[in-house]
Amino acid sequence: MKLMFIFSGEHPELPKAELEAVLEGESISYKKILENKAQRILVVDTDCDDSTFIRRLSFTKKVGEFISLSDDINGTAEMIYDRIRNAKDFAIRCKSHRIEEDIGHILTKRGLKVNLKNPEKEVICINVNGRIISAINIPIEKGFNERLPQKRPYFHPTSLHPKIARLLVNLSRVKKGDTILDPFCGTCGILIEAGLMGINVNGYDIDDRMVEGCRRNLEFFGINGKIERRDALNINNKINEDKMNKIKFDSIVTDLPYGRSSYLTEKNLDIFYRNFIRMAEKLLNKGSYLVFVVPKDIEIISDLFEIKDKFLLYVHKSLTRRIYVLKRKV
């Protein structure tokens, strides 16, 4: 299946990195057909016939089933017609009204019916350097506004926006049926997004209120998860070595609690981060991913993990954070 992705303009690198991570996690091979960074467009040829994985994407604005790339209006219209000839009605969506009108006119002459409000087939057309890309729109229902932190039963102002939480989960390369751990789960923003994608969720938090609030939030969204009160940096106090060696996760994803003094028993943040990475190495399967957020000036160095990616994430004018994507060494 050939697919066209139109990325959001919220970040120059993260939308493509998220897509590539999801494709890798889902074991979907692909070849790049076209990329236009200025217009945030990527067209790929995948080896799958099922496009349901696109529902996972948080930083992708639109997805379409690729039809054609042509510098000829008539040729573009004919290729579109071949793909939607059996549709009861259609609409052409393009920033160029001339392209909309010209292609629409050709298709109506071929007997197709226009429906601008609720068409059965919605065709996206984009002018890229004089050539027209066409694709059949595949709707993506994300529902982030319905899952905003303030709309959950238990609210805390430190919770991530659902879009960012889902991005972090996707960067960890997990798929449906895998098991994820958030060792500083707070109000469960990360685990909510993972659970809604069919991923098994586990969470630790040292604060009883957060543990109870997390459970309430998961239940509100119909997600079953294992949430425990636990100091993630001192797991040996709760689990003996033999038992701990049997507990392995497919990914660890978290927003590190650098702003919550209750966690930072270590005055030295460097020690805190080193302890966190050692803990993660013990709990992750070999080759699995560790994804976390830290202040922008924190530099992570580890001989236990390969640093696959790191991104600066602008939050607002006084706050920029860094996302790290690490892979446990085999």
Shape: elongated
Kindly report the spatial arrangement of strands forming the biggest sheet. 2-3-1-4-7-6-5
Roughly what percent helix? 25-40%
**What is the strand content?**
25-35%
Structural class: alpha/beta
- Kindly report how far apart the N and C termini lie: 33 Å
Radius of gyration: 23 Å
Order of helices and strands: EHEEEHEHEEHEHEHEHEHEEE
How many helical elements? 8
Low-confidence parts? none
What summary fits the major beta sheet? 7 strands, mixed
Topology, number of strands: 14
Q: Could you describe the 3D structure shown?
A:
This protein is of the alpha/beta class. Helices cover 27% and strands 32% of the residues. The chain is built from eight helices and 14 strands. It has helices at residues 14-25, 73-84, 97-109, 162-171, 189-196, 208-220, 241-246, 269-283, and strands at residues 2-7, 30-36, 41-46, 60-70, 90-93, 121-128, 131-138, 179-182, 200-205, 225-229, 249-255, 284-295, 305-316, 319-328. Strands 2-3-1-4-7-6-5 form a seven-stranded mixed beta sheet. Helix 8 links the parallel strand 11 (249-255) and strand 12. Helix 1 crosses helix 4. The longest helix has 15 residues, at 269-283. It is elongated and about 70 Å long. The mean pLDDT is 92.
